[in-house]
Design goal:
105 residues, mainly alpha
């Protein structure tokens, strides 16, 4: 496009009609058509990338929820095992010799 503008400026300074004006602006129409096709292609690619990013984001969310579910299940099992072990253990009351505690101060 810049080249076309430079050509227009050059031919206007020489007071000479542009060759593409004489032959029906063929080159200019080709450039406009290519620009339109490139814009449409870019918009299609951008749309495809957006869809892929949304799919990737939803996959990450799904993976994260699965990992959190596994983690909570493992923690629940661990706490249940700890509860069973602590109920079986008979550690209370704890016998402490208070004379040794008072003398340490």
């Amino acid at each position: 496009i810049r080249c076309l503008h430079d050509n227009i400026y050059t031919f206007n300074s020489l007071d000479d009609p542009l060759p593409r004006v004489e032959d029906g602006n063929y080159e200019y129409r080709v450039v406009l058509r290519c620009r339109g096709q490139a814009r449409a292609h870019f918009l299609q690619l951008r749309s495809d990338v957006r869809v892929k990013l949304q799919l990737l984001n939803s996959k990450h969310v799904q993976d994260l929820t699965e990992q959190l579910e596994k983690w909570t299940t493992v923690l629940l099992d661990y706490y249940e095992e700890c509860l069973v072990i602590s109920k079986k253990a008979n550690v209370f009351p704890i016998d402490i010799d208070l004379s040794t505690v008072v003398d340490a101060q």
